[in-house]
Amino acid sequence: MDRTAAFEGQRPRLKRLAYRMLGSVAEADDVVQDAWIRWTRAPDDVADPAAWLVRAATRLSIDRLRAAKAERAHYRGPWLPEPMVEPLTNDPVERAEDVSVAFLLALERLSPLERAVFLLHDVFDEDYGAVAKTLGRSEAAVRQLASRAREHVRDARPRFSVSQDRALALAAAFMEASSRADLTGLSELLAEDAVLVSDGGGKRKAALRVLVGREDVLSLFRGLRWRGGALNPRSLELAWINGAPGVVMQLEDGPATVAVEPDAEGRVAAVYMVRNPDKLAHLADALTASPAT
What we know:
Elements: H1 3-22, H2 25-40, H3 49-73, E1 85-87, H4 96-99, H5 101-107, H6 112-123, H7 128-135, H8 139-153, H9 164-179, H10 183-189, E2 190-199, E3 211-212, H11 214-226, E4 235-241, E5 244-251, E6 254-262, E7 268-274
Parallel strand pairs: 2-7
Antiparallel strand pairs: 1-4, 2-3, 4-5, 5-6, 6-7
Helix pairs in contact: 1-2, 1-3, 2-3, 3-7, 6-7, 6-8, 7-8, 9-10
């Protein structure tokens, strides 16, 4: 058996699974590395290398997720997953509904086991028997976990009904209006029930609660304008962020990402802004010096 070839063939799948489990690009990379180390010590007669590796990555992710639950309970302000950024020049690798911020936030409500069962069965198409073997549970228990998980995430996957071009145009218009604190323009772009979530992790300026409703979101930009400030990015680049249109930008105090989820009418339904520098370190090499527009 070519151990390296077997692992490399599964690497993308392992990273996709770990990212959805943990909501962290950096930790997903760590899980994949740990799975490789375990794989180098596995017996030579493993009958199904792919299943062995998925089992290892799942169990490693569950261990990390259990440890992270306590940390996230004391997180300062709203918590968002590390942004998964794909350049516009690429066709999105991931299905938008399976990496959307709303979907990942819904997964946060699940126990580690529920999350693993749901992802393995409903997202990665593993049968219940295989999932039961991976988790060391009975098939009946796995089915019950899957049913409970589905109740929590049923309505969380966004259904992007606008074209990619229109969605990108919406993101660009939102950034243009927000960079100038143009309240009239923002009001026209925002859905009545729009939400804005900003994650600074206590290390960068960000709202300490979720803003809900058009007027609540506008109050943030009204405050920025009153203080004579706006986003005023030094550089700005359109990108796919967790399957949604958005931007990667450089602000005076560091990078940020903004993902914009449109509703069926083509208005902004949700805005997710990550400012916590710990969650943006993996973007350092991807940031460009494109001039702000």
